[in-house]
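Changelog note: in this version the structure field was regenerated for every chain. One regenerated record is shown below for reference.
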Amino acid sequence: MVGKEIRRWVLAVSVTAVLLTGCAGGTGAVAGGNPGPAPATATDAGGATADQSSAALAFSGTTLTGTTLDASTLAGQPVVLWFWAPWCTICRAEAPDVAAVAAEFKGSVTFLGIPGRGPEADMQAFVDQTGTTGFEHVVDADGALWQYFGVISQPSFVFVDSAGTASSFAGSLPADALRQAASDLVSG
């Protein structure tokens, strides 16, 4: 009987280890508040007296299409940041839902992809293959934006409301949950 109990314990530990080392890495915990210290590409949007909308969107970067995006121009608007990696199977699985919800809210919520942890060519292939071409993706090759927003795993989301309050969600979101979060940004 002891042997069966040990095998069950080993199986339980093994399953837990696999789940914890998966692509998502997060538990779905929600955090709020300012995203933390500015990345190297952040702009000074008012110094020490900058409001949250300036702080949350005080960054710029180059998109996969080669244009420069200054996120501070989005201050005062609801924004969803989707952090993903090109090799992440969970990101790939949720990409069609993210694209669909982004299309539904086009004009009322700005969606930005923040790909990192991979070569830019792989990022572009991911976007082309997953149908997420309907919104911009800001390349974060050095991880500065991930660090800026406190993102440690993919997929993750950061929701910035029109007042500039940022909240984050680590993990995958089904379409209905993402749709509700975007709707909350519009109505909030």
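Spot check on this record: The beta strands are 30-32, 60-62, 68-70, 79-84, 110-115, 136-137, 156-160, 166-170. Confidence is low (pLDDT under 50) at residues 1-53.
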